[in-house]
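Entry for nicotinamide-adenine-dinucleotide complex. Fields follow.
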Amino acid sequence: MPILVTGACGFIGAWTVRRLLELGERVVLTDVSGDLSRLRYVVDGADRLPFVRGDIVDEGFIENIVRNYGVDAIIHLAAFQIPQCRADPVRGALVNVIGTLRVFEAAKKNRDIVRRVVYASSAAVFGPPELYGEGPVPVNAPLKPTTHYGAYKVCNELTANAYWHESGIPSVGLRPQVVYGYGRDVGVTSDASRAIKAAIARRPYRIRFGGLIDMQYVEDVAHLFAISAIKDFDGARVYNVRGDVISVAELVKIIEEATGVSGLITFEDKPLPIPAYLDDSETEKDLGPLKKTPAREGVAKTAEFFLGLLRRGELDLSDLT
Ligand SMILES: NC(=O)c1ccc[n+]([C@@H]2O[C@H](COP(=O)([O-])OP(=O)(O)OC[C@H]3O[C@@H](n4cnc5c(N)ncnc54)[C@H](O)[C@@H]3O)[C@@H](O)[C@H]2O)c1
């Protein structure tokens, strides 16, 4: 029975589909977008995979896919990012909150076949770093988001908890921070990936934040989503995600070393309003062993990917303007 991936045309979606296939799973994909370009670059034979296009907010849409394909588990990645939620909080809530409810309702109505739901939460459920003091932020630290996006993610974690207690639907919510790699071009923290692309294209680029960030290479995060859907746990579990914490100044140096450019990539000295150091000991215990690609290695892999596209004349630079 296949695993359903929502938001499959997106960045983490495409890499998660690839990881699921590597692990021998069958998949069915859905997205409101019909742009399969990320999937085609990341997944061999992407055009042959079952794909159902539609809006997750529409009543019955996910339910029908679950029933028609006999879905075993759902990995829910479809969402608006921080800027989209800020620009239109009501539509943001429809996609991020109601969309998540649609996923859980589909699981509930097909409890006989759906084993579990895995969904993307975010480190944005936490408030500004100064609220948490020194040391890694534990998974059960108080949630005090300052963005609509973060508030919707908190709501989704509570929704998942309610579906476990009221309907017995097991779930895993994962909280990434700055995921990077080929295909990341939506949201503020996509600047880390765009800066690598800009360096490859020999274009100037200004990263809109500074301070410490947790660089999480997309293949590591995709593995976490895949394994969370394959393993069997009870409860409504939520896990912090941790990669390689570095400063943006260090990131710029790493990009320069990987691409041979100098002085083109700059950054604003304004930290992100979310903590960089998250405690992922529970994640390691339940979902490990985890791979945490060092930023130097992940940036080099990403630069190589972009360089391949540049050499073939296929590097899309439209997100750099
Ligand atoms: N990328 C990161 O660094 C990061 C960090 C923390 C959390 N997350 C979360 O991970 C998930 C995936 O992020 P991503 O970086 O792949 O984002 P993305 O923007 O690349 O992909 C999201 C996908 O959702 C689809 N979508 C949007 N609205 C939809 C709707 N109404 N119906 C169906 N599909 C819809 C989009 O078409 C897109 O393909 C999101 O929930 C995001 O909030 C991402």
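NOTE: The domain at 3-179+217-242+275-291 is CATH 3.40.50.720 (Rossmann fold).
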